[in-house]
Amino acid sequence: MKDFLTLTLAGRLPHSFHGNTPHFRWHWLDCGILQLTPHQSAERSLVLSAGIHGNETAPVEIVDHLLQHLFAGELALRCRLLVILGNPAALRANRRYLDSDMNRMFGQRWQTFPPGSDTARAAVLEQALTQFWRDAKEGERWHLDLHTAIRGSHHVRFGVLPARTTPWKAEFLDWLGSAGLEALVFHQTPAGTFTHYSCEQFNALSCTLELGKALPFGHNDLTLFARTQQALAAWIAGDYLKAANTVPVRYRVSQQITRRSEAFELYMSDDTLNFTAFPRGTLLAEDGETCYQVEHEQEFVLFPNPAVALGLRAGLMLVRES
């Protein structure tokens, strides 16, 4: 199954849907969904996903490199591993999505979107996660969803953590720092993201890893993410890297900017970087009679995008935690 990415992008089926290597058994579950199970017992489970947005290719290349090392016997597998290339149709088209943004659909929110290939795929991914966690033994459950941002960023590598009712484990946050993440953003409210779904429904320690800027296949400088790939390989092999010398800067979401009508205007230039700071009182956006402005002494913008569909997030505002 060394040609997993090639088959996924081509929309072709493999000659066999399962097989064995000297170290693990693999099972092609669906297009872009591959499960690897080590021959020895494993209490840890990892969902490693990428390509939820089809124009975010660097994470897909990182996942492919890890798979190549696993199948070549150059990387040990000491956890149950579910690899997901989220939206193969959008990957083939080099588009963020075909009809609607899949990363707003999870938790059965796809039922509220117009039916299409994206909603159908979201349902398939929910089912794949449900089966994977159902078969897992008690033990560590991680979900790392690899993305790239539309815009450039003051933090090249950062993580976004879903709202969670129980405290985050220090070991998980330390690992994110060891993976080279410069900042961590903590959501305060539920969302339709893939990581929120796995965290809320299956109590997984989950994080969306934002790695650089969206570029086509072959145009990514993967050296920028070498530390992240090294940390992923170490966790898969049952090793742990030492914590990074620099602790990630922590932010929490203070408010969400939502585009609710065609009158929506976002008062930020197209070259505004993620984590750009704005002082108290700054008018950020207007939508009819609704005004969004900075409420704290200083807030930082994340994912500003005035072109989202009506009813979706056009940006997050963050405050820095001490």
UniProtKB/TrEMBL annotation:
UniProtKB keywords: Arginine metabolism, Hydrolase, Metal-binding, Zinc
Reactions catalysed, as given in the entry: N-succinyl-L-glutamate + H2O = L-glutamate + succinate
Active-site residues per Swiss-Prot or TrEMBL entry: E210
Cross-referenced InterPro entries: AspA/AstE_fam (IPR050178), AstE_AspA_cat (IPR055438), Aste_AspA_hybrid_dom (IPR007036), SuccinylGlu_desuccinylase (IPR016681)
Chain sites annotated for binding Zn(2+): H53, E56, H147
Keyword Transferase in annotation: no
Domain of life: Bacteria
Pathway given in the UniProt record: Amino-acid degradation; L-arginine degradation via AST pathway; L-glutamate and succinate from L-arginine: step 5/5
Residue span, Succinylglutamate desuccinylase/Aspartoacylase catalytic domain: 44-234
Protein name: Succinylglutamate desuccinylase
Organism (species): Trabulsiella guamensis ATCC 49490
